[in-house]
Amino acid sequence: MVYGPTGSGKSHTMFGCAKQPGIVYRALRDILDGGGGCSTGGESGEEEDAGFGVGLFVQVAVLEIYNEEIYDLLVGSGANTKGNAPKMTNLKCQVRNCDSQCEVKVKPTVTDIAHCCCPQLYVSSEMTNLKCRVRNCDSRREGNPTVTDIVHCYGPQFCVSVQVEIITRTVTYLKTNGYLVRLEVMGKKAKNATYISGNEAGKISREVAKVEKRRTVKSTLCNERSSRSHCMIILDVPSVGGRLMLVDMAGSENIEAAGQTGFDAKMQTAKINQGNTALKRVVESIANGDSHVPFRDSKLTMLLQDSFEDDKSKILMILCASPDPKELHKTVSTLEYGAKAKCIIRAAHASTPRDKISSEESSSMLNSRIVAMNQFIYKLQKENKQREKERNEAQNVLRLKEEELAQVRAKVRLLEGQGAAAKEEEINSKVAEKTKMLKSELQMMEEKMLRQQQELLALKRRLQEVELEKADARQPAQQDVIGGRLLARLSEMSAGGDQCMSMAMSMSMDLDAGDQPSVLDVKVIKEDTRQQQGQMWNHTSTAGSCTTVLEQEDVVRLSGFPEKAVLSTVFEEGDEESEEKDSGAEVEVCKEVVEEESYKVDRMGQPLAEPDRTNRIQNIFRLCGNYRELVKKQNAEESPAAKQQAFGDENKQPGEQQLPGDENIQQANQVFGDENKDPSAAWAAIETPMCDVKVADSPVSSQLSPIVCQAVDDAELTMPEELKSCTTDGEANELSKEREGLLDVYIKWESGSLIKGLKLLPTACLSDLRKLIEAHFEEAGSKQQHHQFTFLLLGDPSGAPVSREKEATVQISRLPNWNNQTNSYLACLRVAKKPATMEQQQLHQTPLSPLESKLNSLALHHHHAAAGALSPKVAAQMSPSYIRELRA
Ligand SMILES: Nc1ncnc2c1ncn2[C@@H]1O[C@H](COP(=O)(O)OP(=O)(O)OP(=O)(O)O)[C@@H](O)[C@H]1O
User: What is the DSSP track for 627-652?
Assistant: First the structure.
């Protein structure tokens, strides 16, 4: 038998080709003529038969096991067969798959064929375009199919025409060309199998070649002409009682690999594999010495049972393998199967009685078996040793690999450990460095906070001292103004928490500790107003630098701050110069940031721009301004003469206010004698050191200067003689009545100089007040055109200027109180524009004309003008005498 996967060459080995006859024909030749020649038989002519001699008489049967059914290929082949063929007996109905077998003895009728074959395939003349079902080819038959067409498309085993003609043709064909007959297995042989007999090898070979072509084949992906059945050629030599069974097995195949689709194809593959598997189990069972050998699992093994069981028989298994490397696994499987088959040791022929076997035969038989088994055992031991050796070598290699792997792992762990340690050290060093840096920053912050707290405590103590001093001075009004603001400032700082305090203090500390960390003392520099009239604000208090305008420096220590807190004022000359270049721009004031500008007027009447202060200096003013006010207040109290001289009469000529002795006071008189002069020069001139603290001048503090307040109070108490002379007793009474319920409004420049004190109705607004002030300016001098001003709403938190449009909507009651007096208000004016021409500047130099010299002549005219300019509500309630008094 030949065994192997599909396409490995089993059929080729068995039957060969024209040039290379297969085992079948070689066996026939060897048996019949002793090996004199070789031919495939079928295609050869008589010339080829010449090589075949005439020898033993043989009987040849050709069987096909297809779908686990045994068919006799000789029946209907046209060969000169003998035996029971051709018989339709046992023709199983293939249509209904029933067991009723047509009792067609010798000549089957059409009915028999129709019954046993496929009536539904009777397609009459409509067989046009029928696809070949036998060879699964695309060849189609058109028109009325012939029997050949039917056989071609449906195979000879099927009758496919329902028409009588076709059936007749089919029957005729079957009778002529033969038809397949299914055989049953009886015992260990096929029952009623036909055979061809003879002693001529060539003739028999040709018959076998014809029959071989009747095998069921099919084109698959693995083999173009794949056998779908097992083929058995049985040669019986009756003369010697021998038998040669040549088996061409169908190749085991994979359904998907073979591309088998459809139920029939899959069934074919399943049946093929079933026969191969059954044969394999039989071989294994025999090799294993099993008590039961499954011969009956397939028709193939049933027919081969004698060959396996008869100890006189010999089995030669030819393993076919494909040279294709892709089929290597199949080749290995085939070889394993062959190795298993080699282990088969057949027992003594059962049919031979043991008692009939002579002892010598038995002994030789046993010896041969022992030798065979010894050889087999030796071979197994040899293979076992070889495998054990290979296993030991593999184990050694494995052990070496494991050792290498362990070493590599150890190295990896070592590297990982070193890397981790190095990384940890690096992280620790970084953490330590960062911690150290943070600690140093924390320490600096704590020191800074401590300094700020000490500064705050010192300010509070200083405030208490100031309050006590003011209480002693019995001036509650001024005390309220100054102390209240300072107290409010400090309370605000305290209430604002650490954050606000820190912000406020940091503004000063930025200058002190930040910009001048090494300076511990306070340097107070008084401005030289005598020599630098035009730079009165250009006084500078710095620790590290001094400007040329410095006249003297007093270095004192701030009370309560033995080592800290330098409060300094820095005015930059460059800023001042640049500000002076900015002509004509209306200056806006933002009180929140204490951003203010003050216009100074020099002796030539030239308005000078206030230096633009940086924010931090302004913030210092916020902190220090009240100290400045305290100093001024104290100076005013200590120098009543100077105060009186300074504010005695604003309309007097500067030369009339001079007092001998004190140069500062003289300078102040010069300044306050002219209301257009900046009084801050006077503040600086008359101030005296307050305790051990002297703070630089501040325009903010000057706005609320207590000295100015006092001066106004004093001025209010004394009515000018000129006014008294202008009023009669009746008018005086009328005035006294009207003055009751009126509000006192004190008018002053933003720079600090007092202008006038007026009385207005509570319903009066800033526009009314403007008219009166403008009337006053007109009376003071028609050439004072530069007195364009805007009201500063100091009572408002913003302190912003009030536009002309809104003046009519702002009542004077919104103005801040004057010295905390309920019916007294302060109107602060800001110069709106500078004189544009030199002519106007010269006009400013002209001293003011005394009011009293023009009151009589202009009273009536101004009354009408002022009354007409006043708001109707105010004008209606004011008598002419009152208006005259206001003008005065
Ligand atoms: N030794 C060989 N020399 C030349 N051609 C060969 C040889 N063996 C096989 N063939 C060719 O290989 C093809 C398949 O061979 P074959 O049909 O005998 O395989 P198989 O094992 O019988 O397959 P299956 O089991 O499907 O029938 C055929 O065309 C055949 O001619």
Answer: HHHHHHHHHHHH-HHHHHHHHS-TTS
For residues 373, 377, 378, 381, the Cα torsion angle rounded to the nearest 10 degrees is 180
Task: Kindly state the average pLDDT of the residues 866-872.
Answer: 48
Question: 302 pLDDT exceeds 50?
Answer: yes
Residue 12 CB–ligand 1 contact under 6 Å? yes
Q: Is 334 in the pocket of ligand 1 (CB under 6 A)?
A: no
Closest CA to 63 of 168, 173, 238, 216: 216
**Ligand 1: nearest atom to the Cα of 4:** 21
Atom of ligand 1 nearest to the CA of 222: 26
Q: Which of 1, 12, 230 to mutate to test the pocket of ligand 1 (most atoms within 8 A of CB)?
A: 12
The H-assigned helical ranges of 727-798 are 729-739, 766-780
User: pLDDT category, 871, cuts 50, 70, 90?
Assistant: low
Tell me the DSSP string of 724-743.
HHH--HHHHHHHHHHHTT-E
Q: Is 11 annotated as a binding residue?
A: yes
ipTM: 0.96
Sign of CA dihedral 325, 331, 336, 339: negative
Q: Coil, strand or helix: which one is 250?
A: coil
pLDDT in tens, 127-168: 444 455 555 555 554 444 555 555 555 554 444 333 344 455
If you take atom 4 of ligand 1, which residue's CA is the nearest one? 12
CA of 131 to the centre of ligand 1 (A): 27
Section 603-626 average pLDDT: 47
Instruction: Note the pLDDT of residue 453.
Output: 92
Greater confidence, 38 or 543?
Answer: 38
3-class DSSP state of 541: strand
Q: Which of 73-82, 170-179, 379-388, 742-751 has the highest mean pLDDT?
A: 379-388
User: What are the two backbone dihedrals, phi and then psi, of residue 185, each rounded to the nearest 5 degrees?
Assistant: -90, 125
Q: How far is the CA of 10 from the centre of ligand 1 (A)?
A: 6
Residue among 23, 221, 223, 324 to mutate when testing ligand 1 (max atoms within 8 A of CB): 223
- Domains contained in the chain, CATH given: 2-86+178-342 (3.40.850.10), 108-175 (no CATH), 719-888 (3.10.20.90)
Looking at residue 780, what is its pLDDT?
Answer: 75
- Give the pairing of strands 600-601 and 607-608: antiparallel
**What is the spatial distance between Cα 66 and Cα 63, in angstroms, rounded to a whole number?**
9
CA of 749 to the centre of ligand 1 (A): 127
Max Cα-Cα span within the chain? 187
Using a 6 Å cutoff on CB, does residue 669 contact ligand 1? no
Residue 83 assigned as binding residue: no
CA distance 794 to 830: 11
Tell me what percent of the residues of the chain surpass a pLDDT of 90. Answer: 9
Q: E strands along 114-224, which residues?
A: 130-131, 140-141, 181-183, 185-186, 189-190, 196-200, 217-218
**Spatial CB neighbours of 371, under 8 Å, sequence gap ≥ 6:** none
> What integer is the mean pLDDT of 710-735?
44
Residues 523-556: pLDDT tens digits? Answer: 433 444 344 444 334 333 333 333 333 333 333 3
